Amino acid sequence: MSKTLQEILAGVPVISVTGNTGIEPTGIEFDSRRVGAGSLFVAQKGTQVDGHQFIPKVIEMGASAILCEDLPAELTDGVTYIHVADSARTMGLLAANFYDNPSAKLKLVGVTGTNGKTSTVTLLFKLFRQLGYRVGLLSTVQNQIDDDVIPSTHTTPDSVKINELLAEMVRRGCTHCFMEVSSHAVAQERIAGLLFSGGIFTNITHDHLDFHKTFDNYIKAKKGFFDQLPKHAFALVNIDDRRGGVMVQNTAARKETYSLQTIATFKGKLLADSLFGLQMEIDGKEVWFKLIGKFNAYNLLGVYGAALLLGEDEEQVLMALSAITPPPGRFEQVVSADAIVGIVDYAHTPDALQNVLETINELREGDQQVITVVGCGGNRDATKRPEMARIAGELSTRVILTSDNPRNEEPMAILAQMEVGISPVDYKKMKVIEDRRAAIRYAVSLAQPHDIILVAGKGHETYQEIKGVKHHFDDREELKEAFDVR
Ligand SMILES: CC(=O)N[C@H]1[C@@H](OP(=O)(O)OP(=O)(O)OC[C@H]2O[C@@H](n3ccc(=O)[nH]c3=O)[C@H](O)[C@@H]2O)O[C@H](CO)[C@@H](O)[C@@H]1O[C@H](C)C(=O)N[C@@H](C)C(=O)N[C@H](CCC(=O)O)C(=O)O
Ligand SMILES: Nc1ncnc2c1ncn2[C@@H]1O[C@H](COP(=O)(O)OP(=O)(O)OP(=O)(O)O)[C@@H](O)[C@H]1O
Ligand SMILES: N[C@H](CCC[C@H](N)C(=O)O)C(=O)O
Ligand SMILES: [Mg+2]
């Protein structure tokens, strides 16, 4: 699938091009460490380093073309230079051209929001497979093309990877792809050049202020996704979130809404919620689903709406959806032989933790204790730490604060920042145990039959990242083992 630089640059705004555009780049690389003979290297200014500093190096390594925002003072003969205003954005446009615009050849639906993206895209993926389609998925948990699972490193991959995966989906006959669109991805132009058929907004609450700095910037990043949707696409928003309206203020797409509270294109009602599932009324029909919690009622309604907007039949959609199970690590239950209920959930934001604990409290019977094991990731938004501890303290009988992925931070320093959030009245309930395995075992030692242990924050993750090293760690396995040795 070789293409000349001229073909790859078709329709792409540039400041200048110097050199031969008849060359055929072997690939597009933004990391010097991956450059090979004939690569087109994209120099980007990152949060850590300026990729422009690697230009001499990649030329030595055989790069045939350089895309940059700052043109070097001296140009090397035989290398083509493309000078642009925004490298990241241009890379998205080039990647789309390089891979033959795969997003235009299938129905691509993006999902954004603080919580619920993975749940929503996974439900859509499973639903459309059940309806008989070949489908692609790009998500935090995994990427998938039909039956083939491809490990994922980000919630939203970089623009080259996205287009490569979409092209493979098209090649294998996929008609739909459902992808998560993180706020980082919008801000870093990872979705530039993609032609979406639809976008979904789940909600927006506190997260990622380390990266976006202010809540307003965070809202703007998410809104940026809807701003770039084309006219033929739909923009489906959860109107019960107060920012739902803002998201679609400037979109060219067709605006549609879903709600559990007010008039909307897709209106649902939560009838019952239990540890076995929830019952909803949607379009006058009462349906049981296998997912738990009011937040999943929202996810299901969003999925239902999107499926109808994609032309699917109402009854078939509801029938298929009612049989679908939740994604791994989302309210995943591990029950002990003596009926202690362990729940592993990826709640890693204050809002998600509050939702999960409220759900658990609504579902528990009078004397059942709720024991929460929770931590916060290192090198991520530190302002959520005291908040998450406060919520855990208020909504649990006992709380064990422990490590999540400390990354390059000191685990005890993260825990100290969490601890200050626990209100004095809840202080007695709390214990700090840095080692996550020991924390889970301690929680199990406290539990009586029928008590509920929530292990929050890592969900499906199968590792714990400490000082740059990923060690195998799985909350579900840990709970099972702790139950066994009890
Ligand atoms: C904060 C952030 O998003 N960082 C991403 C960003 O890195 P960066 O801007 O820090 O890059 P940098 O290290 O300064 O390097 C600048 C440029 O020089 C290049 N470089 C660098 C070193 C070198 O030797 N050679 C070289 O060419 C880099 O490839 C890059 O193009 O660009 C990199 C390349 O695309 C990403 O891998 C990296 O994701 C890091 C690993 C990350 O942890 N990202 C997280 C925060 C993230 O993106 N999360 C969101 C969602 C989370 C959610 O919704 O909850 C996600 O979509 O996953
Ligand atoms: N619609 C929702 N509203 C609020 N909380 C939710 C919703 N759906 C799921 N949650 C909670 O948030 C957690 C994360 O859900 P999910 O993985 O679907 O979110 P995400 O947006 O993909 O997160 P990430 O930003 O890490 O990719 C779940 O484990 C659950 O606790
Ligand atoms: N996509 C989120 C995941 C957080 C998961 C939590 N376990 C952590 O490590 O902080 C992030 O990168 O911020
Ligand atoms: Mg996700």
How does this structure look, described?
By secondary structure, the chain is an alpha/beta fold. The protein folds into 3 domains: 5-98, MurE/MurF, N-terminal domain (Udp-n-acetylmuramoylalanyl-d-glutamate--2,6- Diaminopimelate Ligase, Chain: A, domain 1); 100-323, 3-Layer(aba) Sandwich (UDP-N-acetylmuramoyl-L-alanine:D-glutamate ligase); 332-485, Alpha-Beta Complex (Protein-Tyrosine Phosphatase, Chain A). 32% of the residues lie in helices and 22% in strands. Strand 14 and strand 15 (277-282) form a beta hairpin. Helix 3 runs parallel beside helix 5 (159-171) and helix 4 (117-130) crosses helix 10 (294-309).
Summarize the structure.
Its cofactor is Mg(2+). The chain has helices at residues 5-8, 55-60, 87-98, 117-130, 159-171, 183-187, 209-212, 215-227, 244-247, 294-309, 314-322, 350-363, 384-395, 411-419, 436-446, 475-484; strands at 16-18, 27-29, 39-42, 65-68, 80-83, 107-112, 135-138, 143-145, 148-150, 176-180, 198-201, 234-238, 254-259, 266-274, 277-282, 285-289, 332-335, 341-345, 370-374, 398-401, 430-432, 452-456, 463-466, 469-472. With 486 residues, the chain is α/β, with parallel strands linked by helices.
